Amino acid sequence: MRVAIFDFDGTIYAEETFTLLMKHLKEHPTYRSSYKSFYRSIVPPYIAHKLKLYPSSKMKKRSMQLYLEAFEGRSKQEMDAYFEEIRTKMQQDFNNNVLERLKLHQQENVHILLVSGAYTQFLERVTDGIVFNQIIGTEIFYQDDKVYTKTELTHINGEQKRLKVQEALKGHQIDWDNSYAYGDSFSDMPVLELVGNPVAVRPEEKLQKLASERGWEIMD
Questions:
Q1: Over the range 131-144, which residues count as b (16 or more CB within 10 Å of their CB) and which as e?
Q2: Which residues make beta-bridge pairs with 198?
Q3: Cα four-point dihedral sign 89, 13, 115, 153
């Protein structure tokens, strides 16, 4: 079985998910009262990150944990509705070149995975209409169908992406040499290096340099 693994931020979605999620919370008629508390909580780790005292991976995980606290006690249905509200806006910024490649892989009967650090539930809502065989993301915990933030998130990023992909495909005979992976960031390297056909999508400088050196495809 051949697979095609797609990153989300900077690959399928041309922008940054968390920036849009912050704006959505800030302007939301129901939840915006929680924005100030979220913002106050995120400033200290953000400053530490800018001073290079706090790693990027920890900053992303902490940000996502703090963001969810604005929805403590909300139901899964309410969260679905919240994420659904930004689906149309997000899809306007989807990379059409990447979507065309995804459709081509579907026609070739390639097993397609979306792998991202974003919330899985969010990914399921905003990619509605695009068919993936599997979606791997950061899980939101629920207790009695209510958002529960006392359990620490497992943020899917970097090496975690590779491990989750291998876990999801366990039991399948994968033709890695003839499989594909798409990413925009150097942090996507653990997944890009799994396959015989890695593709750098509008890559950041560090990945651009490495992709050029290795002769990988670079996609706009």
A1: ebeebbbbebeeee
A2: 181
A3: negative
